[in-house]
TrEMBL record:
It comes from Plantactinospora endophytica. It comes from the Bacteria. CDD domains: crotonase-like. InterPro entries: ClpP/crotonase-like_dom_sf (IPR029045), Enoyl-CoA_hydra/iso (IPR001753), Enoyl-CoA_hydratase-like (IPR053545). Gene3D superfamilies: 2-enoyl-CoA Hydratase, Chain A, domain 1. This is Enoyl-CoA hydratase/isomerase family protein. Pfam families: ECH_1 (PF00378).
């Protein structure tokens, strides 16, 4: 479900995703709707509420065409100019885990458990595999991806898959939203892209785009380029 509220002076787009939700047109539409709202609002923040439902049974109606649409919706979320903050509690698996890995900042309740399983009980071979391998390295991702090993909140924080563990999730969201008030816009998207490409692009190939980003920042500091 998608909703909009205000935290301080910022417009916040809320999106709830459950671990047991089916990947299908309804869920994809919710993610696309949240992205569209964030794109329409100046300096928006997206808050993903990831709930701990048990994964449902295997979906015989799921097609590769639908999976492709789901992956593209997550990619759109991942590349927004807005900051995406994930708040996760209980079992985080399936689509909830995939959304967590696409977020910029991840807040975990103490009871959080991360697990790479889908309705079949097997690890799902979607783009979450690509994200987690890039974020923690292949060696650390191996048991998660191959065997669906479950991680506690503390273990996930140790790997850098979550940034903060707290029992007061609403307070953590408010604090992080306030702290990111200067980070929205195309500059955030540029830094995120540079970070995501760092492990796959050589220094020589990356140098030009990093210099261009630095030049943009210097021009803003001098007041010769609009933010």
């Amino acid at each position: 479900m998608t909703d909009i509220s205000e935290i301080g002076t910022r417009q916040v787009v809320h999106l709830s995703i459950g671990s047991g939700q089916r990947i299908g047109p309804e869920l994809i539409a919710e993610v696309e709707r949240a992205c569209a709202r964030a794109e329409d609002l100046p300096d928006a923040t997206v808050v993903l509420r990831l709930t701990g439902e048990q994964p449902g049974g295997a979906d015989a109606e799921l097609s590769i065409h639908t999976v492709n649409k789901w992956e593209r919706a997550l990619r759109r979320l991942e590349r927004l100019d807005a900051v995406a903050i994930a708040v996760a509690e209980g079992l985080c698996a399936g689509p909830a885990l995939e959304a967590l890995l696409a977020a910029d900042y991840r807040i975990a309740a103490p009871d959080l458990r991360l697990r790479f399983v889908q309705g079949t009980g097997e690890p799902w071979p979607g783009m979450a595999v690509h994200r987690v391998a890039n974020q923690v390295g292949v060696a650390r991702a191996r048991s998660l991806v191959l065997f669906g090993t479950q991680l506690s909140a503390t273990e996930a924080a140790g790997l850098g898959l979550v940034d903060e563990i707290t029992s007061d999730l609403d307070d953590a969201v408010a604090r992080r939203t306030a702290a990111t008030r200067e980070l929205a816009g195309s500059e955030l998207a540029i830094r995120r892209r540079l970070l995501m490409e760092a492990s796959a692009v050589s220094f020589e190939d990356a140098l030009g785009t990093h210099l261009a980003a630095c030049d943009r920042m210097l021009r803003r500091m001098k007041g010769t380029q609009p933010a």
